[in-house]
Amino acid sequence: MKEKRILLFFSCLCVGISLVIASSQHTCPANLEAKCGDGSTDDWEGEFFPGIKKIKYEGPTSKNPLSYKWYNAEEEILGKKMKDWMRFSVAFWHTFRGTGADPFGAPTKSWPWEDGTNSVAMAKRRMRAHFEFMDKLGVNRWCFHDRDIAPDGKTLAETNANLDEIIALAKELQEGTDIKPLWGTAQLFLHPRYMHGAATSSEVGVYAYAAAQVKKAMEVTNYLGGENYVFWGGREGYQTLLNTDMQRELDHLAKFLQAAVDYKKKIGFNGTLLIEPKPQEPTKHQYDWDAATAFAFFQKYGLQEFKLNIECNHATLSGHSCHHELETARINGLLGNIDANTGDPQIGWDTDQFLTDIAEATLVMLSVVRNGGLAPGGFNFDAKLRRESTDVEDMFIAHVSGMDTLARGLRNVAKLIEDGSLAELVRKRYQSFDSEIGAQIEAGKADFETLEKKAMEWGEPSVASGKQELAEMIFQSVL
Ligand code: XUL
Ligand code: CO
Fold first, then answer.
1. Are 94 and 82 in contact (CB under 8 A)?
2. What is the CATH architecture assignment of 66-419?
3. The whole model's pTM is what?
4. Nearest ligand to residue 148 Cα
5. Which among 101, 208, 436, 455 would be 20 to 30 A from 48, CA to CA?
């Protein structure tokens, strides 16, 4: 263990005063490559977050940034406890592997527990920090990629052995708690072998390697009691159609996903399989562009086992609102999970920010409530601190803020439902279909001759106002 320094700092936020005592032991950038420690030990003395107590609900008047103002886990809203509506999850990759690096700049985070290596020992220490983080935050679910939590070895067998070591520790840390993975996944995009894709790679060797990786990731997700398994096809797409056999690649992807269904059954894994749509980045065009594209793909290939993990920032990248993607998934029976984040209207890429817009959160929660909740899915904070946010307490503040925003959205939906006028506006808008002929149309029993007869009989139809401004006024009134 390196030299230790205790650094006390006073964090005075504009909303009030919070006294946070942070212990800054030896620090190195949370970098994947840079070396600073020797990565030989997972020793750590005391707490990882010594200045931070368990985050509690203090209500909307609290000025304490390390408290919940809107998220009250045990409180019942619309017939369910808030924690059961939300099923919040910490994303290991952003929270514990995010370095703050961007294409123009070096890592900015120097978390005290990082020794700058990607060793198995460092992975263990990091996993312990992660469990303390979840405990203090009061979140009992987490999401991971295989390679975020354990380093690559020289061979696949060695890599699997590294993963097994970390999984054994995670299992031990989960014991006696109600913590478990919301979902696991395989990282099939970072290593150069995946430069042409994984299941859609032009190389059969890569297809096989990816299958082996997913097989193992499903096994460990199952072993940890994970409730879902995600496929995000970061490189399952193309950079140019000139060198791409799109039909062959899509057929390969479907065969790969079917093999995952078969293996899931074989090992008795009951988790839901989820596809996470995204239109592009890193590829120019990702095959799972949006919810509707993924739905068509499921239909064509008979992949009925799959549901969707909708990510809000991916939704906006595909030219839709998050609400649109959620509703498209929901009405097709596919809403399985939400990667809770948001983009920036002035930035055209996946900024993965914590959701803080109350109106957007209310629309998200409207879909969730209409869906009857998300279980066995939940809300995974696929969101990262800004590069410039470098205090340990920022990790907590970001999650507290994201959780409170969604909790506030849920409270607003309850108000909207209780008020009833928006539902009434929508009901009235379609009431002409509550007629005999409307019922015939909806039952598929109105042929064109019947409808022509009606049109002749009725003459020019009357068309009512859409009342958009009134709908917006009602929505605003609950925010
Ligand atoms: C990337 C993204 C991923 C997936 C998991 O945009 O959202 O982190 O959620 O691979
Ligand atoms: Co995501």
1. no
2. Alpha-Beta Barrel (3.20)
3. 0.93
4. 1
5. 101
